[in-house]
Here is the input.
Amino acid sequence: MISRRSWLSNSLTAIAGAALLAPSELLALQHRESQLAQRLSDTNNDEGYWELVKSQFVLEEELRYFNNGSLGTCPEYVVKATEQFRRTLDGFPSKYMWGGWADQKEAVREKAAALFSVSPETIALIHNTTEGMNLIASSLQLEKGEEVLLSNHEHTSARIPWKHWQEHKGAVLKTVELPLLPNSIEEVVDLFRQAITRKTRVISLVHVTNTNGMRLPVKEITEMAHEHGVLVAVDGAQSMGMFEINLEELGCDFFTSSSHKWLFSPKGMGIFYATETAQKLLSPLVVCRGYDDPSIRRFENYNTRNLPELLGLGAALDFRELVGAEKIESRVYELKHYLRDQLAGDERFALKTPASDMLSAGIQTVEVVGKDVKEVKKQLAEEFQIDCRPMSSHDLNGLRISLAIFNTKADIDYLLGALKTI
Here is the structure.
């Protein structure tokens, strides 16, 4: 429990500094989280613990939310902290927008770097995954005929930047067709290996697909790609925060993600990673004074930006530290297995996501056999107040069920009861 409670000394005070918030407001937030830490330590029943975690989120009371893969929710602590940052900014706008929060911004960068076990000098605090993909695709100097490999499960916001920035120069976008249910990591790696030619310059791949939650073996694909001198860019929108990620171990050159999904940060925040070598290949999307900063900060230099949201990301990282990264990952997999075990052998349902924990995690796509997924989605919403994403591409006809730490086994039971009724 010491590791979970010690976050308090490094949370809002470390991000903001005692002068940022009025003492009474700062103490109130810290007191509330101290009480939560104590309650967590006193909770012996495992589901009781997660019911308590769920109570910290601000979802509507009757809503069962299984759509975190589209957009996450914030815990109340993050909401309140961000509100206080906003009030502080509006109390002295010019001070905090231009320099007054310089140390606090760097504290958030350090927390983000710690999330990935990398140097802060490899982390830029951007807006979302799409921005990061555009930064990469717009920067690389590909020549006519040179190739970018993408899987057939890439999000449109990961594919379109390559199309927009590179196709007019004659670069070729090649699609690697992935099976919905691969049997092994090596099967997936082999598909990329077979697609590489002497003209391949980049592999741009999703870490966890937004379609059926397939988890791609980034480490193994990167090792293979680097043997051929090929760069690797990773769309981590559905992986960052879902499970632990060590970017040094993955070895990819670029990693971009939105923190408003599985990190539960304020909306419109993202984290971008580039190795110090790979940074030299990039040019800022937006330029203003300071554009020639040699550090990775030049990619987040927008002049005026929503700094309360940025500091709110720091608060979200502190909340994650309170619960514990290892515990979050374990819980995500526990919920995955609980859902799949309940559906096993029931011919009314078809699981469209790989079973292996090496090939999937907190997103599971389920077809109600014989039912159109859009009608199932509508019925779940209107009759049961359940929100999840219908997926029709890739012949899925399935409900994408996102399992996050604010979901409980009781929530899954309710979902399954609704699906069986339908």
Summary: The chain has three domains: 2-63+72-100, 115-316, 326-421. The first helix runs from residue 2 to 5. The first strand starts at residue 64 and ends at 65. Residues 2-63+72-100 form one domain.
